[in-house]
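Hi F.,

I've been meaning to write this up properly since the lab meeting, where we talked about keeping a consistent format for the predictions we share between groups. The idea is simple: the sequence comes first, exactly as it goes in, then the structure tokens exactly as they come out, then a line or two of notes. No screenshots and no reformatting. I'm using this chain as the first example so we have something concrete to point to.
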Amino acid sequence: MKEIHCFRFEAEIYTNIDLVSECLNKDEHVLKWNTQIIENIYDGSEDDLGEGATFITRQKIGKKVYELQGKYTKYDPPNYASVETETKEGISKTEYSMEETPEGTNFIVNVSLVPSNWIYKLATHMFKWSFKYVYNEQFERFIEYVYDVEYERARFENEFIKENLEIGMTESDVIDLLGEADAVGVEDTNASHLWRYDIGAMDEYENPLDKQFAEKGFNVVDEKGIRDGFVKMQLFIGWKDGKISSIKNTYLEDDKLVTYSLLSE
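Output, unedited:
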């Protein structure tokens, strides 16, 4: 039977592609936003999934629970995944594609069916309009879930900084805690040594203010980048005699830029 295209969903998600892919592919997330899937059972570990991998998916549709055989025909995160499930109606195909954009992630879903016989072929043509009511709700819920995860992680990262970063810590203490800084420079007011961490930055993120640091100093926050989601927060650590003398972390909370500061004075 010829494949019948039944549904397409496309949206711009204003966050990085890795988070979108994680929420789409990992069961710890999928089972929270997808109201149909009860569980997925793998032959081995979920982390070992790849092209050709098969699994059992238990789904509740209406009042009935179905146990279906699934297969990843393509699996190339974070950009692409294609899943097939077989039912009495035929082979259902769902393709996900994601592309990183200047605004975040372009997210596209295509659903099609290869009917098992001419009766289901006729039924699919007659009722494929109804697919959008089921799938639109699911994927709108998915997008909302992605933003919720992003918000919770940003809040956790800020609380982590408040609870673990202290005045007087050494450079080795900070590297053990946060890793190497994304950039280093000199603070303009008192010429003290300064480190910057671009926390939650998109892979291709470059601070547009870096070119100005030589003239204006190193303590300039990329407010536009934070508002637009290219970087979740910017942490500046000032040093004096090899120990932390100042901490400044700027992030977005309830659509407002907030700065947490801690000074040795």
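Notes:
The radius of gyration is 24 Å.
Residues 70 and 85 are 4 Å apart (CA to CA).

If this format works for you, I'll send the rest the same way.

G.
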